């Protein structure tokens, strides 16, 4: 499990040792920074100090939404739509805080999970549509944005499906709770490995 925390720090480390990367990585830097911070906090706070993580994850959900929002806001058009959506999310977040309790985290966080997953799916779709409409010669695998968007799409849709099954898994004796966390770890692993490869790839391209 500890290696997951380390993998979360590596993308930011790769950026720090060589900042000559493309503009897409600059736009994605807030997410890389938050991922590194979350990995450090979860290792120290959760693994070492055994602190209650309910409040941290609540704050993290707010930060996570806006670093992802920022990335799509910068690479796509529809600026006004993103500003409106970002404002609506803040209102939703504030409203849900009124009766929020760490004990009911799974149920009460569902609207926030839906909001960020919806944004990722729709924004990713718009990016792919825009790329194919322009019909540029540059292949998808040569675009840094493609890897960032793919990693977000896989991670958020995957964890969202697991999130929807959480109540069933927890209340079903035939399914071990460990299986739930294994799925979460797998999607976290995919995200971190993909980001390491992407930042490294951007670094290699900048050296040539």
TrEMBL record:
Q: Per the record's keyword annotation, is Transmembrane included, yes or no?
A: yes
Keyword annotations for this protein? Membrane, Transmembrane, Transmembrane helix
Instruction: List membrane-spanning regions.
Output: 21-43, 55-73, 82-98, 110-132, 144-166, 178-200
Please verify whether the record's keywords include Membrane: yes
Its name, as the record gives it, is Uncharacterized protein
Q: Which organism does this record belong to?
A: Flavobacterium jumunjinense
